[in-house]
Amino acid sequence: MSQLAGRCSPILGGGPSVNGPRRAEIRPQSRRDLAHFRSSRLWRAMAFREPFKGTISAARDHWEKLFLDCSRRYTGNLSLFNKTPVRFFCSISSSGVQDNRFVRHTSEGETEPSSYTWPDNQRPRVCILGGGFGGLYTALRLESLVWPDDRKPQVLLVDQSDRFVFKPLLYELLSGEVDDWEIAPSFTDLLRNTSVQFVKDRVELLRPLDHLNRIEMREPGRSRSGGLVQLESGIIIEYDWLVLALGAEAKLDVVPGSAEYAFPFSTLEDARKVNSKLRMLERERFGKDSPPIRVAIVGCGYSGVELAATISERLEHRGIIQAISVETAICPNAPPGNREAAFRVLQSRKTQLFLGYFVSCIKEVSASENSVVMTRIGEEISIDAKNHQNKFILELQPAQRGLESQILEADIVLWTVGSKPLIPHLDPFDQSNIFSLNARGQAETDETLRVRGHPRIFAIGDSAALRDSSGKLLPATAQVAFQQADFAGWNLWAAINDRPLLPFRFQNLGEMMTLGRNDAAISPSFIEGLTLEGPVGHAGRKIAYLLRLPTDEHRVKVGISWLTKSVVDSVTSLQSTMTKRS
């Protein structure tokens, strides 16, 4: 294979010269097959637009002959060469630096990938990957800044979903306080009055070029490109500046059975699935003699506690909520006021807390098969055969001394522990552009939010590993992403306009958590020891998040909707009170 690589690399690195304004095409059997022959020089040719000289027919004949000769001599059993002979030819569409050049690679019957066409090749091109708090708010920040006429960047936002999700309000979907459109507006609606472009797609491959010789990149006639992004659909985006804000996804493959049977709760789709499952269980257990709905929540951080409080209020006496944590206290990193308020609410709603335990296994048990299940540790759990839905058994092992193993039964398991950042794959054929990642998989950044070794790439939110002045890693919260988006937008402005960049400094404004339809806890950082609880805390939290919604237009719509709902609820409550008295 080393000999094959040596013979093929001249082909993809430039090969015989080609004359004239032609278009380059590479046609292996599949897009994946092309990866065997990509080289760093090919990508650089794409970015720098290196000219080719010669004749098309000579280039094609020479490349096909050399390629097929290599395939016969060195490939053996490689599936790529056991199919119909691959036809290789290359060309470039050229007429100058302004040409939109890219490599096309397709197989028969496969749609050709294309390059994203920027409206103006003269103005800077900013590509933002991820439309969460970090990505969307960075785009809106760039739109709000004042730019010189020839320096205002073109901004492209890429996200796998067509909706922005205000995740701190997902719990209100379960309680029925909000509607989908209020906390998950479409990017089309949010960006309608801006110049920001949106593409719904997944990121497949990232090829940064800003780690190369910077003097070479600034030579006259050279492209100012910072790199290339390939999307899952095949679209290739050439950018000048890149923002990594892809967020994180739930890490479910932690213990046996967790990925198969547990529900995460971090996206709009997750919330909808959980809500649908709860509705189904509520319909099945509607009668007075029906068994209670058992809900197991793994994790007692903010997300786990807010879920426990919301679902326990929703189910009331029809449900049994079991919250499990390896820690000996709920919300161990929360301010004392929030932690104490949450503990009181959970106790008042008879939530069962299993503190100091970790889940070792989750198993599914069909009620129709056996009415009694023998677990691995020899204990018996009775299964109600009248219930047609399968049950789940959670085996708990003690994480603290003095505790004994436990077996829990549940109708639904919610998993709120652990997450993994969504950093895109880098071009595997160029090892010089690898990101520096921490143990969690986040990109290491400097204090200006730029990825180390890549001056054209910014990373924020869950994608970034940044420490505060004390050396502690900043938490992956919405509050941090809000503030980083503001700095990322400003530093992009400064970098494009050759101004000094600002170091990011996180300011903790306090912490908030929901505890039910009319209950919440707020601990503002500017008044030490103060905690707003109950209806006051609930109103303060809703107002704070209303002001944090992305655009003025959306804030007005949601504000009117919430006010209307509040009036209707107040009138309904008053009528119910008067009816009871009469």
From TrEMBL:
Alphabetized InterPro entries for the sequence: FAD/NAD-bd_sf, FAD/NAD-binding_dom, NADH-Q_oxidoreductase
UniProt-recorded Gene Ontology molecular function terms: NAD(P)H dehydrogenase (quinone) activity
Keyword Flavoprotein in record: yes
Gene Ontology terms: biological process: aerobic electron transport chain; phylloquinone biosynthetic process
Catalyzed reactions per annotation: demethylphylloquinone + NADPH + H(+) = demethylphylloquinol + NADP(+)
Required cofactor names: FAD
Entry's Gene Ontology cellular component terms: chloroplast
Protein name per its UniProtKB record: demethylphylloquinone reductase
Species annotation: Phoenix dactylifera
Lineage of producing organism: Eukaryota, Viridiplantae, Streptophyta, Embryophyta, Tracheophyta
Gene encoding the protein: LOC103723780
